[in-house]
Amino acid sequence: MALSGYLGRLLKVTNKKDIFGFLASWETAKMIVDGNLAHNVLFRGPSGNLVGTDHYNNKYYENDTHVYSRRRWVVFDDKFDYNITSVPPEWHGWLNYINDYKPTEYDFKKPIFHVQSSITKTGTEECYNPKGSWFNPQKRNWKKYEAWTPNQQA
Question: Measuring CA to CA, how many Å separate 39 from each of 124, 125, 141, 142?
């Protein structure tokens, strides 16, 4: 592929008008630092067939010409702060070849304990901090040690 074709494809995928707008964007720095993002967005994404999107707007692709375990992939909607927990269970099963049913074409039976999937807050400031954690905003109002005093019976 010629350099002009590569640059044209790069501008098309990133929705930029010119090369200077692309170079000045945060996406460029993210793609340079995170090679996986650049590979998925620039090469794998356009080369595959779009199978569907989930309720987080992640896009799922498939290409049968690739090696077996590399045929299915996801391109996350949030390219700066993507999280693997934004992949719902039905898409996770399809991505990892647990089943071959595309969630866009098949309605999975939900178990009685089903809860809507959500993105975990681990690693963020909203994560769970137990009582006594240094990061818990509430002050400690409990004693770590309380001396035992025996009952005084006369």
Answer: 26, 30, 51, 51
First to last CA, the chain: 97
Rounded distance between C-alpha atoms, residue 39 and residue 45, angstroms: 8
> How does pLDDT run across 70-87, given as a tens digit for each residue?
788 888 887 767 788 889
Q: How many residues does the chain have?
A: 154
Each domain of the chain, given as residue ranges in start order, spans: 1-33, 36-127
Question: In the prediction, which pLDDT does 1 show?
Answer: 47
- How far is C-alpha 13 from the chain's CA centre? 19
How far lies 82's CA from each of 45, 77, 98, in Å?
A: 16, 8, 23
pTM of the model: 0.59
User: Can you tell me the distance from the alpha carbon of 122 to that of 128, in angstroms, rounded to the nearest whole number?
Assistant: 8
By the 8 A CB rule, do 37 and 29 touch?
no
